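User: Predict the structure for this protein chain, please.
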Amino acid sequence: MHGYQIRNVSERPYLYTLVTTSRADMDMAIMAGFDKVWQHMSTHGIAHAGGNLTVFTSRTTEELNIRTGCLIAESDMHAVGHGVRAAKTPGGSAVYHLHHGSYNNLPKAYGRMLEYCRENGMRPTMPSWQIYKNDPSDVLEEQLITDCYQSLHSE
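Assistant: Here is the predicted structure, written as structure tokens:
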């Protein structure tokens, strides 16, 4: 079994900061982005509403543009400022994959997801995003769970 599903996903609100980074520095840049958003949320009394996420808005061989942030309630979308912005994940058709294990294996998982799309006549588009279901400081690396999504062109 391939482990991919086509889902009609709903938009979900989140707060984020935009980081542009090389692939080599991606982990540190993502953590710095999370830290900035977490501090902002703490200062403004905003609760998490479903996990941390990264949204990849563009990719080249040299750099990535990544929104790093947290899912929130729609009523908290006004709480922006100091480099923290609000947006919603895309609604519509997306390929979904439940990833178990190390974050280091996520690029390979997305590569296989894109291959699945090509093999099945689907047209992936940006963004792609992932929602982290648990915290690496609370569980072993092999117990990490990540929801992975790849947007599809609407026909």
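The chain is about 20% helix and 40% strand.
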